[in-house]
Design brief:
The protein is mainly alpha-helical and 514 residues long. It is built from 22 helices and eight strands. α16 (377-390) runs antiparallel to α19 (428-442).
Length: 514
């Protein structure tokens, strides 16, 4: 089995259709937003189908918008004129854009699917006495749903701030007010604590499913964002059973053939099955379209080129650059580095190599089946360094950073070589600079940079200038100013159709500046 979405595709799509899509007018259905629990959760296959529907909406999120929003708003990307990217790269977006509404809807549809599982715990536990599933099966189903609900809310709160907290199966979204961002984060923490108690460890559950380690990793990440460093440290200490890949296998973190490796902690699955052209572009999760456009967007069409700034951040001898970005005609790519860039279908460098189909000797196209890596162990190690620095454990922070350096075969922090390169680590401030640098290059193009800058309060400094050739020009008059306003653009606008349809959210509830 390549990934979970393939194995249960038919049941997942059937359930999702019943849960979230309008019905044919000739088919009598009492409620198009939920299945009747009186006729569901009577077998293990039905429990699994309900859980699988909870994963489904991440395929829609990451078919396009999930990577566009944080990457285009960061300083890692220079956008083409493509209307999916340009408004976010230039901070010229507004509440009426369709892709903002699509992102919002997909996340809340996913939350609804999670609530269908969580809200039927009592029925499942009652039915277990006479069915083919056990109490342990129910625990695992609930653990996955709690993790996924927290992850959907993580995507919402990072992009919109406070959003409606929909936690009950019967609650309609169109009469739920906005909760505060603090309340959303607290709910995510509550959900993830439950998930750590209910999910199975890595290696004891089906590949592609939420694991206990992934739950602890996301919990630690949220604690880090909330500056609850001791709790983050405890959560990260429970992330076991994962390891960094050796540098010779580094590309497995970004290729289709390397999916679900020991460094990967949670992935959104795609299998490259397109279906019809209508299904490919519908982005509804219904039908047989199981593709993401990232390879075409970033490598083929170059709608999101790597910026001069991110390329310059790599040290001259850093082998990660050639695995992340195809810079010029000197680059080789593919298995054994046997192919010469530019690639067929590419527009010339620099373009992103990460998550392209080129790793596996495939032509770049809209039909990418490369899984999206939501979290990998390298991110956890770098977050551990940040936590230890904030707890005053400077040597522990340096040791975590050096795990990443050692894997890349790069000089360690704390050596004369790195001091000479401008990265001494004698103070907490210098260690912080090393963390910023290491996250920039290790996690480039992985939807981390924008949220990192906001967390560090560096967003105004780093995002107010376009990250291209003149980003570091000592003459400010020669820098190309971006439209970034930290008082506005840390979050996106609530979709206008939500304000128009939700009786509990009015124009006065819109995010400032929109």
């Amino acid at each position: 089995m390549k990934r979970i979405s393939n194995y249960f595709l038919k049941s997942m799509l059937m359930l999702f259709a019943l849960l979230h899509m309008a019905c044919d007018e000739n088919v009598p259905v009492e409620n198009t937003n939920a299945l009747n629990p009186d006729i569901f959760f009577e077998s293990l296959s039905q429990v699994e189908a309900a859980v699988n529907a909870s994963y489904n909406q991440f395929q829609i999120v990451y078919q396009r918008t999930g990577y566009i929003f944080p990457d285009a708003m960061s300083d890692e990307v220079v956008s083409s004129g493509d209307p999916n990217f340009a408004p976010f790269n230039r901070f010229e977006f507004n509440a009426t854009l369709d892709n903002i509404a699509q992102y919002w809807t997909a996340c809340f549809n996913g939350i609804g699917a999670c609530n269908f599982v969580i809200g039927n715990e009592e029925r499942m536990r009652t039915n277990a006495a006479t069915s083919d599933f056990t109490q342990t099966d129910i625990d695992n189903a609930l653990g996955q749903a709690y993790f996924l609900r927290a992850l959907y809310y993580y995507h919402l709160v990072k992009r919109f701030g406070g959003v409606p907290l929909k936690l009950e199966l019967e609650t309609a979204l169109d009469d739920e007010p906005r909760a505060t961002a603090d309340a959303v984060y607290e709910q995510m923490i509550e959900d993830l604590i439950l998930s750590t108690q209910l999910t199975f460890p890595k290696g004891t559950t089906e590949v592609g499913r939420v694991t206990r380690e992934a739950a602890y990793a996301l919990l630690g990440k949220i604690y880090l964002h909330r500056q609850r460093y001791s709790e983050a440290q405890q959560a990260f200490n429970n992330v076991t059973n994962h390891s960094l890949l050796p540098m010779e296998n580094y590309r497995d973190n970004f290729s289709e053939s390397g999916e679900h490796n020991d460094e990967s902690m949670f992935e959104v699955g795609y299998n490259g099955e397109v279906g019809t052209e209508q299904e490919r572009w519908a982005q509804t999760g219904i039908g047989t379209s199981e593709v993401t456009f990232r390879s075409q967007d970033y490598t083929g069409w170059a709608n999101a080129r790597p910026s001069t700034k991110v390329i310059a951040e790599y040290e001259d001898d850093d082998p990660r650059l050639d695995q992340a970005i195809l810079v010029d005609a000197d680059n080789t790519y593919g298995p054994g580095d046997s192919f010469q860039f530019p690639c067929p279908g590419c527009v010339g460098g620099p373009v992103w190599y990460k998550f392209s189909q080129l790793y596996d000797e495939q032509d770049v196209s809209e039909n990418s089946g490369v899984n999206v890596r939501i979290m990998r162990y390298a991110d956890v190690i770098l977050m551990q360094a940040e936590v230890e620095m904030n707890l005053g454990n400077n040597q522990a922070a340096i040791d975590f950073l050096n795990q990443i350096r050692d894997r890349a075969g790069m000089p360690q922090y704390g050596t004369a070589t790195m001091d000479a390169r401008g990265f001494p680590v004698n103070t907490s401030e210098q260690i912080f600079d090393a963390i910023v640098h290491e996250r920039f290059v290790e996690l480039s193009g992985e939807q981390q940079r924008f949220d990192d800058l906001v967390r560090w309060n560096l967003d105004d400094q780093e995002l107010s200038i376009f990250p291209d050739a003149n980003f570091n020009n000592p003459d400010p008059s020669l820098r190309v100013v971006r439209n970034y306003d930290p008082n506005v653009h840390r979050v996106m606008p609530i979709p206008q159709n939500e304000i128009d349809s939700n009786t509990a959210i009015g124009p006065g509830d819109q995010n400032p500046g929109y």
